[in-house]
Design a protein that fits this description.
Helices cover 44% and strands 16% of the residues. It is α/β, with parallel strands linked by helices and 365 residues long.
Length: 365
Amino acid sequence: MDKKKIIITGGGTGGHVYPALAIAQALRSEYDIVYIGHPHRLEAQVVPQYKYPFYGILTFPRPKKVGQIPEYVFSFLSSLREARRLIRKIKPDLVIGMGGFISFPVVLMAWVQRLPVILHEQNVIPGKANLIFVKLGIPLMASFEGTALYISAKFFNFTGCPVREKIGKITKKAARQKLGIAQDLKVCLLFGGSGGAAQLNKIALNLKGFLKKESGYLLIHIAGPHYYKELKDQLNEEKNANYKLLEYVDDIENYYAASDLVISRSGAVTIAELMAAKKPAILIPSPNVKDNHQELNARYLEAKGLAKVFLETELETKSFEEVLKLFWQESNQIEDKYNEDKETQQQVILNIKIAIQERFKRGVG
């Protein structure tokens, strides 16, 4: 008997792409997965590595200037025609929308054609695309229980946010052996998301100077492709055994496993990955996101006692070095709290599978 076919659509950033891939990996033994995203964004590079069929549709965010509206309308109508063509070609039994403007044409055309559709929302406050589709009666799988405040209970499913399979399944010892890191070092991993973050890079450079005076520490700094060359030129091959600068890593699971502490932004995927890897974290939410969702995400982890949250404005008045020293002392207690927490990735995947099965039962429309 042929497997049922599922289209997963969305992308642009790791925040959409990696949960989509985690869902695909969880469903691949039961369903045939096809991915539709943007031909020039992150998903076009990453998805083919996982051997899923990939189709690209040129889509654009809503314009901010009135003069751009005619061009936007033309491109939007073109994306709808391409989405309809692909849906007719692929003949999916279900469409999963991961939110964002890249998912919009495929989800809309699937709904118009009365195909079963279900959404996944990575942040506490749903994005505009998902909010529109929930109002059309499409059910939503939520990463955070707090999302229930923003949508009707009729369409709400709390599932959690899935992460890549290997995260949380590698021992610290094995990861450090693979990465060539001494077992006795205290390792701090710092990154700003899949694209990097300028403010966190500044913090990394300050910490580099601080840790240079200390022994037994290693700061691994993943700068992101936008900032790496500038930082490398700035450092001018300066030697520092306590500091390692990287552009980007594909095997983030090894770096999570090898670290004792993580300093990062607080996108929804990072929160889920920290929980799966069971890592104490200092979270610095980006102030440059809609609805302040990164702070809401970070406060969720802080409320569980699993992280410390600092706004960028707070860091201007505090010694980050002192914060780091105090946090090292508490990190063992935080790891114990993770062992008590019941929100595991196994449960997240089970929740998603149940929500998808329920959507199939409900039928078309």
